Amino acid sequence: MSFPDWMSGHAACIERALETALPAADAHPVPLHDAMRYAVLGGGKRIRPLLVLAAGEAVGAPQAALVAAGCAVELIHAYSLVHDDLPCMDDDILRRGRPTVHVVWGEALAMLVGDALQAMAFEVLAGVDRPGAARMVAELAAAAGSRGMAGGQAIDLAAVGGPMTQAALEDMHRRKTGALLRASVRLGAMCGDAPAEALARPGAGDTHSRLDDARARLDQYAEAIGLAFQVVDDILDVEGDAATLGKTAGKDADSNKPTYVSVLGLAESRRMAADLHASALSAIAPLGEAGRRLRELADLIVLRRS
């Protein structure tokens, strides 16, 4: 199967699962449920659930568990976007080419939409029929919490208008953006109980050690690609336009936020993205064919234009 076919088929599967899991738009209270569906459905590249699926497929995970974990990650991502767009945060009016939730339904309901989507994510993940479901819930909670995404956002808000070193910028984005991307890969790996075929060769150790090795490589991949995603985002904020990006372009510069481009410059930011891309691919090279979709997703993340 070609990568575009794999990606569109898996994204459609996630879309159907999300549509089924979300409350019906006409269920009481109607405005909240209607807004939740607006925030989640009908837009986005579904990069995070695709990472869950690709990582899980590399270690022989069952599809049903991967779809549920992918939905949980996407619900956390959707909640974070709703809250990020609020006037008290980034004050954005455009998301995925449409008016943001608070523009359509008001700030108070948008806050509740985010709250409800976050709670729903853990409800979905807790229902995964795998021995490590509790650890998976803990993994996602850590990625979304004060040491992960929420903490990174707090650092970001405090950094507006001030200087920031490259090390501090990387720490912020490993939390704000990288933590959830890393959790996506880790959740996929946690769903699996068989090693990638490329590692199942004579002399490679027993099944348990081969699976541990595959998971360690996936973790290294996730660290690199999580940071690369944000570097590319910062580049696109400078080079892109609202029609292509589906969100307000130039927002970071207008808000005087520290970015990789403002700290390193455009050329060095491009070099950093390329180096992180290479590191991600190197980490999963021993997975062979089992890591094919992860390699293709790394290419998509770093070479994307939106």
Could you name the key traits of this structure?
306 residues; mainly alpha; two-stranded antiparallel ribbon; globular
Structural overview:
- By secondary structure, this protein is mainly α.
- The chain has a single domain (3-303), classed as Farnesyl Diphosphate Synthase (Orthogonal Bundle).
- It is 70% helix and 1% strand.
- The chain has 15 helices and 2 strands.
- It has helices spanning 3-21, 30-40, 47-58, 63-84, 101-105, 107-126, 133-144, 149-159, 166-190, 207-239, 242-245, 251-254, 260-264, 266-284, 292-303; strands at residues 94-95, 98-99.
- The chain has a two-stranded antiparallel ribbon with strand order 1-2.
- Helix 3 packs across helix 9 and helix 3 packs antiparallel against helix 15.
- The radius of gyration is 19 Å and the shape is globular.
- Mean pLDDT is 89; it is low at 195-204.
- Its cofactor is Mg(2+).
- InterPro entries: Isoprenoid_synthase_dom_sf, Polyprenyl_synt, Polyprenyl_synt_CS, Prenyl_diphosphate_synthase.
